[in-house]
Amino acid sequence: MKVSSPIVRCVAKSSIDFDAIQEFLDSEKMVWQRTTDSKSSDDLVEFSGRICYMSFGQRQSPRSNQEYILNLIDSGHGSVLEHASWTFIVSGVSRGFTHQLVRHRAGFSYSQLSQQYYDESDADFVAPPSLKKDSPLYKKWLDAMHSSVELYRELIASAKKLSISNSFSNKEKLRELRTTARSILPNAIETKLVFTANARALRHFLITRGAIEGDWEMRDVSTQILKIVKQDAPSLFQDFETIKLSDGSSSVIKKTI
């Protein structure tokens, strides 16, 4: 049995077709003065915001991309931020973590490893760092995790002893078998999921979850997400930063600009 740690990877993100945008601007006889070296996700949000007022050419304010997006954020014009999105694959997290994550519905889409179709006989677990690895409590925790997997394997191997209806198809018998066996698995079991979220939803997630002192997994994942999206869209996440806590872990906070 292996003890895992959260890993967040970005597998997809919004892209912008500047040729199509230029074609539109030409058809409207408009000019968009873009900020030099601005990122594409930030450009997408700025362009979308400018469409609301057709603020191009002479109607364009002298604000930079960073200033323009900060004004959107400060004025509460959040719907424009929804045009930029990211898709992440998250691994090394616990089922307990994902039970909390999937409560974020607006602006999020999820696809998670299924315990009804996937055999967890060789599952890994995620250990809270508050359990010191050289402590007696950590050993008891490991023993409990081992015991749950052993019983899971026994339940999987005891299909003939379980009262599964003979009228079920083989596929449904397997589903029922794994549904029964997974009932013994703890929240600490490692899982994987893909989720997609737009910038507005991610900002809300970081505000509400990024600095929860008592939830190390949320803070860890929030820190990794912020690092990714801030590289892709520094203007959209300019008012967030990562800080180090006294225990060496990280936290995401929203700063005043």
Automatic annotation (TrEMBL):
Binding site residues for FAD: 79, 103-105, 112, 198-200, 204
User: What PROSITE patterns does this protein map onto?
Assistant: THYX
* Cofactor comment text: Binds 4 FAD per tetramer. Each FAD binding site is formed by three monomers.
Q: Which CDD domains match?
A: ThyX
**Keywords carried by this UniProt record:** FAD, Flavoprotein, Methyltransferase, NADP, Nucleotide biosynthesis, Transferase
- Which EC number(s) does the record attach to this protein? 2.1.1.148
The coenzyme or cofactor needed here is: FAD
**InterPro entries associated with the record:** Thymidylate_synthase_ThyX, Thymidylate_synthase_ThyX_sf
Superkingdom is Bacteria
Q: What Gene3D superfamilies does the database record attribute to this sequence?
A: 3.30.1360.170
Q: Where is the active site?
A: 209
User: Pathway it belongs to?
Assistant: Pyrimidine metabolism; dTTP biosynthesis
Gene Ontology terms describing biological process? methylation
Key word Transcription regulation present? no
Show the catalytic activity.
Answer: dUMP + (6R)-5,10-methylene-5,6,7,8-tetrahydrofolate + NADPH + H(+) = dTMP + (6S)-5,6,7,8-tetrahydrofolate + NADP(+)
Residues engaged in binding dUMP: 100-103, 182, 209
Q: Which Pfam families match?
A: Thy1 (PF02511)
One GO term in the molecular function aspect is:
thymidylate synthase (FAD) activity
Q: PANTHER family this protein is in?
A: FLAVIN-DEPENDENT THYMIDYLATE SYNTHASE (PTHR34934)
Question: Do you know which HAMAP family this protein is assigned to?
Answer: ThyX (MF_01408)
Q: What does this protein do?
A: Catalyzes the reductive methylation of 2'-deoxyuridine-5'-monophosphate (dUMP) to 2'-deoxythymidine-5'-monophosphate (dTMP) while utilizing 5,10-methylenetetrahydrofolate (mTHF) as the methyl donor, and NADPH and FADH(2) as the reductant.
Per the record, the similarity remark reads:
Belongs to the thymidylate synthase ThyX family.
Quaternary context:
Homotetramer.
Name of the protein in question: Flavin-dependent thymidylate synthase
**Source species, please?**
Pseudomonas putida NBRC 14164
Q: Name the encoding gene, please.
A: thyX
